[in-house]
From TrEMBL, chain A:
Residues 1-30 form the signal peptide. Keywords: Signal. InterPro entries: Peptide/Ni-bd, SBP_5, SBP_5_dom. Residues 108-504 form the Solute-binding protein family domain. This is ABC transporter substrate-binding protein.
TrEMBL record, chain B:
Its main location: membrane. Belongs to the binding-protein-dependent transport system permease family. Keywords: Cell membrane, Membrane, Transmembrane, Transmembrane helix, Transport. PROSITE patterns: ABC_TM1. It comes from the Bacteria. It holds the Pfam family BPD_transp_1_N. Residues 114-322 form the ABC transmembrane type-1 domain. CDD domains: TM_PBP2. This is ABC transporter permease. It is a multi-pass membrane protein.
Length: 595, 332
């Protein structure tokens, strides 16, 4: 391994980047059609929580994705990246899936392989589904209930298929009695007791304990069917066998991926997918700026990763192609959290002092400002999760009167905490996230003004689970403030907050309840939530959990994160969905021309 | 000559074994000393204990280090079977390891990406050699002239400007702005024109850096040689200036140039990381960068070995070519 004879001197790089950014701005073409036109760009935010140019979608053509990062795995059992789950719907189907609708409606569950939503009996512990007629694999053979069961059983084979979400395992077999299909001694390798398949069309789930979000978890791609004779185990990621409208034609990890139509798929069997393009290509770029320029030049239709354009590309796009941009809320909250094991953060007043002392506008600016960074975060429930109140719930007046910090109130809280002269602490921040480092520096500067002296410790970001995920290490290092971010795996309070706030989820390694919250009221609300089937009541409980968390002063929210995402002039039927944290819903994207 | 070659090949093989052991130690032993369980770096976001244990079993990470090294060497010649957690994966010879990130054997990944890097390195080398040496010779012959000063200013710029600047600049002007060149890589097997179009900017960018260095070295060496007695003698004997420069001075000038070329080409074949990243070329440099980001140790190890082999071979070729170019060099 080697590099050219160049040194990576930081100043040189920054100067170079600045000059090149200027040149790129000049070189970029086009005018700013921010209002949109029929055949051109739909306009700024035209696809944000609403459908843009749906009627212009034609059958045919090649939809071109570009990405700076490949999926962690294209195996439906193993993938954990949000964009991968979104993309997997091209070649995989589930019993139920998220609606192909814009915004909050997209987060609702709708039947896919199943004829309807679950028939729930036994006090929410039994879920029964019937499969549709005409659902097939890419070789034309019918998809059976046993294929669905086998696909779900693969989640238990963590020793071979690691990496993906394990909610199904936790919900159906919390004691871990089943060993997974590869160690299953039964002749058909379908020994998981929690799932029955009385015939090829029926599948019955038996939960040891009711869980109100079980159907949301079944909508994750990890619940996709897999056919036993096509299961290549760990290598399945290289060529998953399709149950959806497209199938793998070629895949070279980190280079490119091509999907073509699955001729065995029948539109009549699929109420969800429209399958507009004939072909879908993905090209991976190692230079994010190059990717953005290719988007702007029209060589590529959209970014596979959906994590927003780079600062350079964003500047050009906002200036000259605003009509091609959407600015959705990502579903992520960026925040600081206070571990109660580190003194004086065991005292709520000291925690509150940090919240009041922080300059929230400065923190928002460090995150990228209101457009690229997001709205100032005022509480801990992402706006995309049912029960969230957005900026309307702002108990600390973070986006209101105290948005630039309230030194007087902070000092009052310090006095109540018994630290009238302030205190010293350490801010832990990942060293591979420059924006997080910038927020740590911003927080450090504003806290200094109220007498809180904070040192910044930039730890190895790749070792996060072992460093801040270890409560004993956090205490040993004196990390009073940890900078982090979190998004929901599925858009409910359970999908977002359970690992963060429920005391049962405190663990000695890979812990995510960094604040070490042990609040019986919060635990009780989560227990109540999982046993509640009524959507309205679930929403109420979610709101209450959020309030309890904020009242504890465990978190200082920075932003309700937003992205700037690009959609090309060629795209039609474009919309963002809360199901995938504000990304465009890939599966029903169309092109305006079949050429 | 044959004995010399055999001696050099033997030395190269020994060097390669040492390199493998050192690199293997860096990746598999040093983390162990630092208390890091490298099995965790092979699994994804959910570091399930069962997954970590299966990786430990598959890679034999609990075995003594010398057994692990032996298994690695054995894999190169006879292949290797990884088994653990109820899954068996065979890696055919030559097995340089197995990436549990992409679920691919390392060797096919390397051979798939190698032609891109080779094409980049060779194309750029032709350009920088022709332009750099020609500019250096002309500058030496026209010392102090406007040409000399101009060429050396350009050369200084080439040495000073990093690839990530000149590369982005070239893309901004010729690809995004003027749209003369698409700039996206197309495999040679798909389209010769497309391949050339995708490679021309990386070649020029890379050659600009190296040509500048070669021009400066050529100029300095040529000036030194032009002052040598045997050049004066050649001129005194009435030989034409073309023969003096072309036949006598150039031969000696080429010796250090050739040494540099061997090292540079060898190193570039291991992956021109900055160039491949800037132009999104799917070569070894891009592969190793992705592997570093993903902590994909087997790929990093594989590319490191490819680089070592390339440098060793290039040096061997250079040593042999010395004798051809410069008769004063004796192979002993």
């Amino acid at each position: 391994m080697t590099t050219q004879r160049t040194s990576g001197r930081r100043k040189q790089a920054l100067a170079a980047a600045a000059v090149v950014a200027g040149l790129l701005t000049t070189a970029a073409c086009g005018g700013g059609d921010s209002d949109g036109s029929k055949n051109g760009a739909a306009g700024f935010d035209a696809a944000n929580n609403k459908v843009a140019q749906a009627s212009l979608a034609k059958k045919g053509g090649t939809l071109k994705f570009g990405g700076a990062q490949d999926a962690d795995s294209w195996d439906t059992t193993r993938g954990y990246y949000g964009f991968a789950w979104n993309f997997m719907r091209y070649y995989s189907r589930q019993l139920v899936t998220n609606k192909t609708s814009a915004g909050a409606d997209g987060a609702k569950v709708t039947p896919d392989l199943a004829t309807g939503l679950a028939k729930i009996t036994d006090g929410g512990k039994t879920y029964t589904y019937t499969l549709r007629d005409g659902v097939t694999w890419e070789d034309g053979k019918p998809i059976t209930s046993k294929d669905v069961k086998y696909g779900i059983e693969r989640v238990w084979a963590q020793d071979v298929l690691s990496g993906g979400p394990t909610y199904l395992k936790d919900f159906l077999d919390p004691d871990g009695k089943y060993q997974g299909p590869y160690k299953d001694k039964s002749a058909d390798h379908l020994g998981l007791k929690a799932i029955d398949t009385p015939d090829d069309k029926t599948i019955v789930f038996h939960l040891p304990k009711a869980n109100a979000d079980f159907e949301e978890v079944l909508a994750l791609t990890s619940a996709s069917p897999v056919r036993q004779d096509k299961d290549t185990k760990a290598k399945y990621t290289l060529h998953p066998f399709s149950s959806g409208p497209y199938k793998f034609a070629s895949y070279s990890p980190g280079k490119d991926l091509t999907l073509v139509r699955n001729d065995a798929w029948k539109q009549s069997s699929d109420p969800v997918r429209k399958a507009y393009p004939d072909k879908i290509t993905v090209k991976f770029f190692s230079n994010a700026n190059d990717l953005d320029q290719r988007l702007i030049n029209g060589d590529i239709d959209l970014d596979l990763n959906q994590t927003g354009m780079s600062p350079q590309g964003r500047t050009v796009a906002l200036k000259q192609h605003k009509g091609n941009l959407d600015n959705p809320v990502s579903g992520y909250i960026r925040y600081a959290v206070f571990p109660q094991s580190v003194k004086p953060f065991d005292n709520v007043h000291c925690r509150n002092a940090v919240i009041y002392g922080a300059d929230h506008v400065s923190l928002q600016t460090a995150r990228g400002g209101p457009v690229a960074g997001g709205d100032i975060g005022t509480n801990m429930l992402p706006p995309s999760v049912p029960g969230a109140e957005g900026q309307k719930y702002d108990p600390f007046q973070i986006a209101g009167a105290n948005k630039n910090g309230n030194a007087a109130k902070a000092k009052e809280e310090l006095k109540a905490c018994g630290k009238a002269d302030g205190f010293s602490t350490t801010i832990a921040v990942r060293n591979n996230k420059p924006v997080e480092v910038a927020t740590a520096q911003s927080l450090q500067a504003s806290l200094a003004k109220v007498g809180i002296k904070a040192e910044i410790d930039q730890y190895d970001g790749s070792q996060t689970p072992g460093i801040i995920g270890s409560p004993s290490n956090v205490k040993k290092k004196g990390y009073g403030i940890i900078i982090m971010g979190w998004g929901p795996d599925f858009p409910t309070v359970q999908g977002f907050g359970l690992p963060l706030w429920d005391s049962k989820y405190i663990s000695q390694s890979g812990n995510n309840n960094y604040a070490l919250i042990k609040d019986k009221k919060i635990d009780g609300l989560f227990d109540q939530y999982v046993n509640t089937l009524d959507a309205g009541k679930k929403t109420e409980i979610a709101t209450e959990i959020n309030h309890k968390v904020m009242e504890g002063g465990y978190y200082l929210p920075f932003t309700f994160e937003k992205f700037i995402n690009w959609r090309s002039d060629r795209l039609a039927n474009v919309y963002t969905t809360d199901a995938y944290s504000g990304m465009y819903d890939f599966v029903n994207l169309g092109l305006k021309s079949s050429k | 000559m044959l004995a010399y070659l055999i001696r050099r090949l033997f030395a190269a093989a020994v060097m390669l074994v040492v390199i493998i052991m050192v690199v293997f130690g860096i990746f598999f032993l040093v983390p162990k000393w630092a208390g890091v369980d490298i099995a965790t770096s092979f699994v994804g976001k959910q570091a399930d204990p069962a997954a970590v244990q299966a990786v430990r079993e598959k890679l034999g990470l609990s075995d003594p280090i010398f057994i692990q090294v032996w298994e690695f060497f054995k894999g190169i010649f006879v292949g290797r079977t990884y088994s653990g957690g109820g899954d068996v994966t065979h890696c055919a010879a030559p097995c340089f390891g197995y990436s549990f990130r992409s679920e691919q054997a390392v060797w096919p990944v390397l051979t798939d990406r190698f032609p891109v890097t080779l094409g980049l390195a060779l194309g750029a080398a032709v350009l920088w050699l022709v332009l750099g040496v020609a500019a250096g010779v002309l500058s030496a012959l026209k010392r102090g002239s406007l040409w000399d000063r101009g060429a050396m200013v350009v050369a200084l710029s080439g040495v000073s400007l990093p690839i990530y600047f000149t590369g982005l600049l070239a893309l901004a002007i010729f690809s995004y702005g003027l749209k003369w060149i698409d700039g996206q890589y197309v495999p040679l097997s798909e389209s010769v024109g497309g391949w050339f179009g995708g490679m021309i900017l990386p070649w020029i960018t890379l050659a600009f850096l190296y040509a500048a260095m070669y021009a400066r070295i050529t100029r300095a060496t040529m000036l030194e040689i032009l002052g040598e007695d045997y050049i004066r003698t050649a001129r005194a004997k009435g030989l034409t200036e073309q023969v003096v420069i072309g036949k006598h001075a150039m031969r000696s000038t080429m010796t250090p140039i050739l040494t540099m070329l061997g090292m540079d080409l060898g190193a570039l074949i291991g992956g021109a990381i900055l160039t491949e990243t800037t132009f999104s070329l799917p070569g070894l440099g891009q592969a190793v960068l992705n592997a570093i980001k993903n902590q994909d140790l087997p790929i990093i190890l594989g590319v490191t070995l490819i680089t070592s082999v390339a440098v060793l071979i290039a040096n061997l070729v250079v040593d042999v070519l010395y004798a051809v170019i410069d008769p004063r060099v004796r192979l002993s």
